[in-house]
């Protein structure tokens, strides 16, 4: 994937005394090691920090995007990021609260490592004095024998402490229990931090607060083995104001890969943000300044019907992930669906994504009479109802009004040679695919 997002245009808000104060204001600090020390560290000379991403799927999702943007903000403050994609930890998977993960094959995990590295690269700068570096924990885990692992790393972990970690404790009390494989995950993550401390002087690990047990296994290991103090920071898990889980749409995760979640679907997800959540989302997911976000917050409070906050949020985040060109195509598609734009300029993929949720029907090329189309699409219950719709001026094909009930749509009017967008009145839409 290309560098679709414009890294040059991103900057932290100079209105804050330091990056720690900005992270706090954006609601990105839920838990951390010594806050005073960490603020001092981040306000001083450049440090090296890391965040890890496990290839348990072929794409990152919105929860990972939070971490990528924290990494980018720290890089903009002058610090040096290490993006770790877990070729070894991805073979095991961190313990989920409910059940064991399905283990993927080594070939699958290796393939996904490549995909995720490509995604991480798009959000960090790999140029300049504080350029980012990619690391893979398989590089230092694979050569280690089981005996060496137990002697050199395992002896520093106390089982009692490991049992108290949230992810482990919740699984122990479940019917499923926990395998030794997943139980040992925190040791592997602790070893990663130790390795990066030794190789790069890494002094901070960031991650979600649900990873806190794994984050602190690394700080503890470094303290025991090296006698040094390093830091960890956990971001809050983002939830919607109504208590529902953030980042899910119709039961599906919102992925960053356009093949798994189209830019149109991605944009619509942000556009549908509740008024109560808009300001928080703008803080976490955009590089807009505090002043800009406060202005948008005021607009949401005073003119919620205008949805200014949601439109800005959707534009900013979709541009960040998919690029400005793709975002502008999506906005054009949204307008064109409801008659405010030219459907013929939409590429096929954008058109398909924009109409994916609409009622649809497939018919043969012989059945392109307007009455048959309205009935086949379900926009009219019967031929008589369809005739009434046409007679009242409420029937549209590809945004063009059809006034003749005997009209037959010509083949050259098909979008991309096979689609028609039907509309009854202002808001009732359906698609027809014409079979060859």
From TrEMBL:
UniProt GO molecular function: ATP binding; protein homodimerization activity; RNA binding; tyrosine-tRNA ligase activity
Motif 'HIGH' region in this chain: 55-64
InterPro entries attached to this UniProt entry: aa-tRNA-synth_I_CS (IPR001412), aa-tRNA-synth_Ic (IPR002305), Rossmann-like_a/b/a_fold (IPR014729), S4_RNA-bd_sf (IPR036986), SYY-like_C (IPR054608), Tyr-tRNA-ligase (IPR002307), Tyr-tRNA-ligase_bac-type (IPR024088), Tyr-tRNA-ligase_bac_1 (IPR024107)
Compartments in which it is found: Cytoplasm
Catalyzed reactions per annotation: tRNA(Tyr) + L-tyrosine + ATP = L-tyrosyl-tRNA(Tyr) + AMP + diphosphate + H(+)
UniProt keywords, alphabetically: Aminoacyl-tRNA synthetase, ATP-binding, Cytoplasm, Ligase, Nucleotide-binding, Protein biosynthesis, RNA-binding
Record GO cellular component, one term: cytosol
Function recorded in the entry: Catalyzes the attachment of tyrosine to tRNA(Tyr) in a two-step reaction: tyrosine is first activated by ATP to form Tyr-AMP and then transferred to the acceptor end of tRNA(Tyr).
Protein name: Tyrosine--tRNA ligase
Source species: Paenarthrobacter nitroguajacolicus (Arthrobacter nitroguajacolicus)
Lineage of producing organism: Bacteria, Bacillati, Actinomycetota, Actinomycetes, Micrococcales
């Amino acid at each position: 994937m290309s560098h679709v997002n414009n890294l040059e245009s991103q900057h932290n808000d100079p209105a804050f005394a330091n990056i720690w104060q900005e992270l706090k204001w954006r609601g990105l600090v839920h838990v951390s090691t010594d806050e005073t020390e960490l603020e001092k560290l981040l306000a001083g000379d450049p440090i090296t920090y890391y965040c890890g991403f496990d290839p348990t799927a072929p794409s990152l999702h919105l929860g990972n995007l939070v971490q990528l943007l924290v990494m980018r903000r720290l890089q903009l403050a002058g610090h040096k990021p290490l993006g770790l994609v877990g070729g070894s930890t991805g073979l095991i998977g961190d313990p989920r609260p409910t059940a064991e993960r399905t283990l993927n094959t080594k070939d699958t995990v290796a393939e996904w490592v490549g995909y995720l590295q490509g995604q991480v690269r798009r959000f960090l700068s790999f140029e300049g004095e504080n350029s980012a570096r990619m690391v893979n924990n398989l590089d230092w885990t694979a050569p280690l024998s089981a005996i060496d692992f137990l002697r050199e790393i395992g002896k520093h972990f106390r089982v009692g402490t490991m049992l108290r970690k949230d992810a482990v404790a919740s699984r122990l009390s479940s019917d499923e229990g926990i395998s030794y494989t997943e139980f040992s995950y925190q040791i592997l993550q602790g070893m990663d931090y130790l390795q990066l401390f030794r190789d790069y002087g890494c002094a901070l690990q960031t991650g979600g607060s649900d990873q806190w047990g794994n984050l602190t296994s690394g700080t503890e290991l470094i303290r025991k083995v090296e006698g040094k103090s390093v830091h960890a920071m956990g971001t809050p898990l983002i939830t919607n104001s109504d208590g529902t889980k953030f980042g899910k749409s119709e039961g599906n995760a919102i992925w960053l890969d356009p093949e798994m979640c189209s830019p149109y679907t991605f944009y619509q997800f942000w556009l549908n943000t509740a008024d109560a959540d808009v300001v928080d989302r703008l803080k976490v997911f955009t590089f807009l300044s505090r002043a800009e976000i406060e202005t948008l917050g005021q607009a949401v409070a005073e003119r919620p019907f205008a949805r200014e906050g949601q439109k800005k949020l959707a534009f900013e985040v979709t541009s960040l992930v998919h690029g400005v060109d793709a975002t502008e195509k999506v906005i054009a598609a949204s307008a064109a669906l409801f008659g405010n734009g030219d459907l013929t300029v939409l590429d096929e993929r954008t058109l398909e994504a924009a109409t994916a949720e609409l009622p649809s029907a497939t018919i043969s090329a012989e059945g392109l009479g307007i009455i048959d189309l309205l009935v086949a699409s379900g926009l009219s219950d019967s031929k008589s109802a369809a005739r009434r719709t046409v007679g009242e001026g409420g029937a549209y094909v590809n945004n063009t009004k059809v006034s003749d009930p005997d009209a037959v749509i010509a083949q050259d009017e098909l979008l991309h040679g096979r689609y028609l967008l039907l509309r009854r009145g202002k808001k009732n839409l359906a698609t027809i695919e014409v079979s060859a």
